[in-house]
Hints:
The chain has 410 residues and is of the alpha+beta class. Helices cover 44% and strands 14% of the residues. It is elongated and about 90 Å long.
Amino acid sequence: MTLTPSPSPISPAGLSVPDSLAAAEADLHAARWTEARKRLEDLTTGPLRISASAEAAALGLLAAACHRLGDTAAATSAVDRALALDHREMRAVLIKADLLWALGARREANLYYGAVVDIGAERAARPASGLAPDLAEGVTRARTIRQRLAANMLGELQTELDRAGYSGGTSDPRFTHALDLLTGKRRLYTPQPRAFFYPDLPNWQFYPRSMLPWADAVEAATDAIAGELTALLADDAGFAPYLNSHPDLPSQPDYPLIDSLDWSSCFLWKDGAATPNAALCRRTMEALKDAPLCRIRARSPQVMFSQLKAGAHIKPHTGFVNTRLTCHLPLIVPPNCRFRVGNEVRSWEKGRLWAFDDTIEHEAVNQSDRTRVVLIFDIWRPELSEEERHLVATLLETLDAFSPRTQSWE
């Protein structure tokens, strides 16, 4: 027995479904809306059985024709039927947005216009995929309307916040941060530790000074610490590339700072053990005696002078564990040196200490003609109890014993 494929359904006009849809779309683009409506009603209301995707497309076209003819009830009915079959039928989504806009339902229309933009972007990304003229115009119109709504919303929001007493310079910076995230002035960054994540900790980029009661004593020793740094620099001793290639580990051969003195460090403590340089910098270590240094066998503390040469750029990266904070005490700071954590950019100031979560993306750049040097050390996060610190240290030490590390944990 020979099997023959079932013929494609034929419309009352004697056309196949694809040909009927193409003819209706041509009528629509030629402003023959009545003819388009007739073709599409024959397809969608007659006895002809067509696939769900074809019916959704036909109903989207029918909604567009009825909308052009001013028959809002018929357009609404066709749109709702189309979206019930395919909630991403683009033409139906566009007409739904237009119908809601005409009713004054700005919020709801904005959601549908957003979907039009998204679907249009998806189609534009596909090879050999284009948009019909009415859909291309619809995407442009949707973007314009959304931009206008956003501008109006921002203006109204600013007016009401002004009435409520808000001031960007004096109000709580946490609210300003939230407002900037809402309005797109800043991008949201979250911790992305590369090895171990500890939950339920604040998502703070730079830590409030009130959380660092020991910092005053460290800052007060800035000149003494800078004097010990000067002696090390004069002897040209102790500084080595911060990033080193390792034969047993994957590397980034195209990263310019690997094995480079453009980013170098002089460790006083490294991987939890004092180096000979610690004995040369007794006043530096004395200044840190009250800091809650993160103590984990073979891991921490890390205490170092970090040198970044003129023109060097430490690319965006994240640290390994979020149970610690990294502290900077700037010592030699030429102009045009910047440090970014998440969406906040700061310039180092000599003697002004800060602490930050290094599992949030951060980067540093020296655009001056001189070297920048800061003292860097790591501390426990202040939210962790003594028990938590002990357990985290045990966990990480056990992991290291099971799989020894071959490089610094930064």
